[in-house]
Amino acid sequence: MSNLLSVQQLDIAFGKHQVLHQVSFDVAAGHIVALVGPNGAGKSTIMKAVLGLISIDHGHLTIDSHPVSMTSHEALKQVGALIEYPGIYPFLTGRQHLELFADKENREANIEQVIKALHMTDYIDHKAKLYSLGMKQKLGIAQALVDRPKLVILDEPMNGLDPEAVKQLRDYIRQLASEGTSFLISSHILSELEKLADDVLFLDQGHIIRQTSMAELVTSGGTSYHITTADDADAKSRLIALGLPVLTDDTDPEKIILLQKTPQTLNQALHTLLTANIEIVDIVKVQHDLEESFLDMVNHQQEVK
Ligand SMILES: Nc1ncnc2c1ncn2[C@@H]1O[C@H](COP(=O)(O)OP(=O)(O)OP(=O)(O)O)[C@@H](O)[C@H]1O
């Protein structure tokens, strides 16, 4: 499958603060990619760089094989985006906003479709100054989608939406993706991304710490093993030295908590311990949800630094 967006070895610093470190990933045509990370991880910075809004220090960005930078915008004609807050003019109606953003052929039909898909009919002809937070958010998303772009970038799109609106948006994004639109979406609502995204990029302090399909994450990433041995301190240091994802429990620093990062992780760990003649006393399998596995991953990353 062809890549619509390609980000290669992106470095960005604001002054002396290095915000992104060698960030590389691709978004295939028709794929929904989730960008997940704690506050300040660099999610919005990546999105702004893809939109040519900030300068990059090193790296390469292409959309549909065309380079993007602050001085090279041609490829952005194929991109719709909502970053941070929607740009709303209080004295225009919602429909007038969409008319400003709809450029292509089938303009009227595209406007009607997005209004219907996001259930905005009741208020789309009211002035935007009368809109609630959620209505403004939906209008911002509608602006990003109305021109049927090939790539859509949405920063925290579920902000301010009620559960019904979240479901409507999810259904529409899925429909557009099945028709070939690609999405890069950041969100803190991991349970929502679980239902939406095909692939997940975990970002922490400007580094991509894991890149996986959602299917793999749900089946394998949510599992860890608590291993007890005859010499936990020695066992733990050997596993860490091998680069295996071992977490620390502050209340019991020697306890071995092994994240199942790949299906081979447990086998690698057991092989290492047995080769070192360390007796394995007990193994307990623990299943996490997406939220917990994300927190585990970030905590692990902070430990190995
Ligand atoms: N214009 C700027 N000048 C200086 N520092 C900036 C600027 N924009 C962002 N930063 C810094 O870059 C880092 C990454 O910020 P960014 O907004 O990309 O994070 P984020 O992952 O989107 O966070 P959040 O989830 O809170 O939106 C932060 O430390 C932030 O303070």
From TrEMBL:
Molecular-function GO terms, alphabetical: ATP binding; ATP hydrolysis activity
The protein's name: ABC transporter-like protein
PANTHER family, alphabetically? ABC TRANSPORTER, ATP-BINDING PROTEIN (PTHR43335)
Q: Which family does it belong to?
A: Belongs to the ABC transporter superfamily.
SUPFAM superfamilies according to UniProt: P-loop containing nucleoside triphosphate hydrolases
Domain ABC transporter residues, every copy:
5-230
* Protein keywords: ATP-binding, Nucleotide-binding, Transport
* Biological source species: Lapidilactobacillus concavus DSM 17758
User: Keyword Hydrolase, does the record have it?
Assistant: no
UniProt keyword annotation of Disulfide bond present: no
